[in-house]
């Protein structure tokens, strides 16, 4: 039951970030801080794990594979030249959830994590497309395939990092 609640909680977090974008930044930050205070070492894992995803999304943004609507609030205008703040917070929330679910994820074979992660990650971005949170100038089919490939790398990296950081925790 705990993991169902964590999954539902993350889906709510995802919805606030993607659908709400900049209007729920304060709530997203508060939820992250609460998570990091409650779950030991989730902050460290989230920052390290998110760095690759954030940099990867920045590269996809700079290559024109993904575009984002400009923020209407001048406070968030600096994010028009990088990926949106809500996406950065989403990465931190996602990787925090991965840390919380680490025992279950580590029981899965690498191929299972890669297949599930690559399809789930690409579907997440496609859902963001349907909610007008992101635009795919190269079209849906090509960009979806590219996102699956990118998420193969992300999923493998997260699986490896989980194992690495869990080993350090027990030694």
Automatic annotation (TrEMBL):
TM ranges: 12-36, 43-61, 81-101, 108-129, 141-162
Keywords: Membrane, Transmembrane, Transmembrane helix
Keyword check for Cell membrane: no
InterPro entries: DUF2878 (IPR021306)
Pfam family name, one: DUF2878
Stated name of the protein: DUF2878 domain-containing protein
Species, as recorded: Photobacterium aquimaris
């Amino acid at each position: 039951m705990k993991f169902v609640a964590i999954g539902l909680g993350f889906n709510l977090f995802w919805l606030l970030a993607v659908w709400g974008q900049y209007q729920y930044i304060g709530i997203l930050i508060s939820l992250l801080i609460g998570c990091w205070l409650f779950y030991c070492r989730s902050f460290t894992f989230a920052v390290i794990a998110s760095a690759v995803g954030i940099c990867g999304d920045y590269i996809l943004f700079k290559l024109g594979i993904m575009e984002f609507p400009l923020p209407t609030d001048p406070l968030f205008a600096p994010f028009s030249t990088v990926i949106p703040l809500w996406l950065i917070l989403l990465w931190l929330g996602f990787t925090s959830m991965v840390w919380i679910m680490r025992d279950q994820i580590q029981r899965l074979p690498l191929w299972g994590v890669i297949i599930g992660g690559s399809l789930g990650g690409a579907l997440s971005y496609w859902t963001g497309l349907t909610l007008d949170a992101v635009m795919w100038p190269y079209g849906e089919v090509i960009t979806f395939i590219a996102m699956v490939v990118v998420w193969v790398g992300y999923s493998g990296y997260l699986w490896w990092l989980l194992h690495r950081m869990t080993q350090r925790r027990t030694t």
